[in-house]
């Protein structure tokens, strides 16, 4: 279908990179009777089709897309089913989508922070694939059982190493709001994003001057930052890096059938709290922000509050500020460096 819907060769000539959606290969919305992992890395003996990341990557390469322009997708959520038998090994008999997550509220879908919390606190059984062809799956102790397949930090490292081994441009995720951003499961904040960043950027050299992006006119370059952040593969020769991030926050996590994806392209991880996150009583310092003129980065790299607005902030890369906007109803939390509920920020803007 890719060759029918896209001219890959032309895309390779016109685009700086592509984000390959190597997830949602399976889902209860369109496969209600079979529970299976929605983001396999490699083909398994039980697979009747080529629904896996390795096949998708190699297919694009054979169609003319340079490996260095491919960013492979890694999910930060799981697809769930309600099992209809005692068999839990995928593909397992099922009867529709699993119970909705307590915060995402969508049958057949769970954010990673909901999954790890269920495992930690509710007695869900986790099964790992010894071949690492797929990530883990977890099964609830309830009757009927809920089955969910997902990627954990360990599988994110496996996929990141695969990205390096193939010489790909980097990795991207859907989506950053579904990682364990509040460290609910005591593995550190944003453990999946951290695992990806640490693996892909293990030997990344950070430049002291902003990078430039080649435009379609060969003789002209521009320093205008692109709107995505890429974890650069260490196998791709470069002396400069780009470090910016997409800042789109939806009011609820997108269902599996959505086509709009959050991209991570390069080295920095931007932590963003989802509007579906559990309310918290954690208080942060009260901040009064005053409008000012041109923003100057306090430090060359990092996230900093906007003096003129509680709901926006600046992402500084090598001293260049890029204004970012939180989602509707959220304020930037300068302590946690995330977009958070206003009750946790206590920010006011004075004239």
TrEMBL record:
Pfam hit, one: Glyco_hydro_18
Gene3D superfamilies named among the record's database cross-references: 3.10.50.10, Chitin binding domain (2.170.140.10), Glycosidases (3.20.20.80)
GH18 domain span: 1-203
Superkingdom of source: Eukaryota
Recorded GO CC terms: extracellular region
Keyword terms, alphabetized: Chitin-binding
SMART domains: ChtBD2, Glyco_18
GO terms of molecular function: chitin binding; chitinase activity
Domain Chitin-binding type-2: 294-349
Region (Disordered) residue spans: 231-298
GO biological-process terms attached to the record: carbohydrate metabolic process; chitin catabolic process
Family: Belongs to the glycosyl hydrolase 18 family. Chitinase class II subfamily.
PANTHER family documented for this protein: CHITINASE, CHITINASE 4-RELATED
Protein name, as recorded: Uncharacterized protein
Species name: Daphnia magna
Organism taxonomic ancestry: Eukaryota, Metazoa, Ecdysozoa, Arthropoda, Crustacea
């Amino acid at each position: 279908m890719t060759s029918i819907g896209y001219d890959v060769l032309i895309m390779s000539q016109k685009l700086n990179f592509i984000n390959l959606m190597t997830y949602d290969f399976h889902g209860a919305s369109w496969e209600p009777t079979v529970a299976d992992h929605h983001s396999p890395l490699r083909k398994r003996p039980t697979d009747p089709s080529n629904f896996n990341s390795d096949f998708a990557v190699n297919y694009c390469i054979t169609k003319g897309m340079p490996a260095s322009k491919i960013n492979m997708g890694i999910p930060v959520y799981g697809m769930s089913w309600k099992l209809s038998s005692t068999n839990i090994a995928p593909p397992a008999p099922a009867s529709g989508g699993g119970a909705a997550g307590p915060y995402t509220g969508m049958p057949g879908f769970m954010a990673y922070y909901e999954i790890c919390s269920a495992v930690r606190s509710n007695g869900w059984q986790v099964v790992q694939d010894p071949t690492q062809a797929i990530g883990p799956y977890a099964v609830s102790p309830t009757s009927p059982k809920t089955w969910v397949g997902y990627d954990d930090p360990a599988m994110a490292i496996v996929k990141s190493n695969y990205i390096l081994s193939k010489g790909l441009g980097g990795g991207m995720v859907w989506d950053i709001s579904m990682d364990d951003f509040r460290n609910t499961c005591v593995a550190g904040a944003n453990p999946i994003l951290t695992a990806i960043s640490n693996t892909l950027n293990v030997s990344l050299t950070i430049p002291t001057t902003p990078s430039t992006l080649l435009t379609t006119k060969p003789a002209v370059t521009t320093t205008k930052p692109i709107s995505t952040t890429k974890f650069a593969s260490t196998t791709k020769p470069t002396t400069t890096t780009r470090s910016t991030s997409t800042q789109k926050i939806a009011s609820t996590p997108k269902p599996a059938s959505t086509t709009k994806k959050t991209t991570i392209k390069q080295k920095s991880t931007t932590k963003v709290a989802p509007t579906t996150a559990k309310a918290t009583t954690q208080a942060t310092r009260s901040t009064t922000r005053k409008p000012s003129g041109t923003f100057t980065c306090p430090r060359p790299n990092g996230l900093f509050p906007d003096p003129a607005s509680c709901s926006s902030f600046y992402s500084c890369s090598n001293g260049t500020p890029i204004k970012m906007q939180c989602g509707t109803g959220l304020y930037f939390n300068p302590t946690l460096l995330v977009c958070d509920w206003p009750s946790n920020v206590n920010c006011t803007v004075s004239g």
